[in-house]
Amino acid sequence: MEVRRGSALKDALGLVRISQGDLASPLRIRFIGEEGVDMGCLRREFRSLVVHQLTHSSLVKGR
User: Fold this and answer.
1) Closest-CA residue to 3 (of 39, 50, 55, 40)
2) Cα gap 19→42, rounded to integer Å
3) Which of 3, 37, 53, 63 is disulfide-compatible with 11, CB 3.0–4.6 A?
4) What is the pTM of this model?
């Protein structure tokens, strides 16, 4: 999955549209415009960004 650091939450919500067959395979993250191979660290960074963006979004704060 190609994601943008500044839009990790929005990109994560795009997972809802992924087919069931695609969800069966391991999730691989690639940050757009960056080099890196996902050996687990990029997934952790992505999850961290999603949680941070979610906790600072209007979805949680009721803005």
Assistant:
1) 50
2) 22
3) 3
4) 0.74
Please say whether the beta carbons of 30 and 36 come within 8 A: yes
Q: Give CA separation, 13 vs 16, 34, 36, 61, in Å.
A: 6, 21, 22, 18
Instruction: Indicate the pLDDT class of residue 41, thresholds 50, 70 and 90.
Output: very high
Distances (CA, A) of 47 to 18, 51, 54, 63: 17, 6, 10, 23
Structure tokens at 17: 């549209």
> What pLDDT does residue 51 have?
93
The whole-number pLDDT of residue 56 equals 87
Domain ranges of the chain: 2-61
What dihedral angle (degrees, nearest 10) is formed by the CA atoms of 18, 24, 26, 30?
Answer: -10
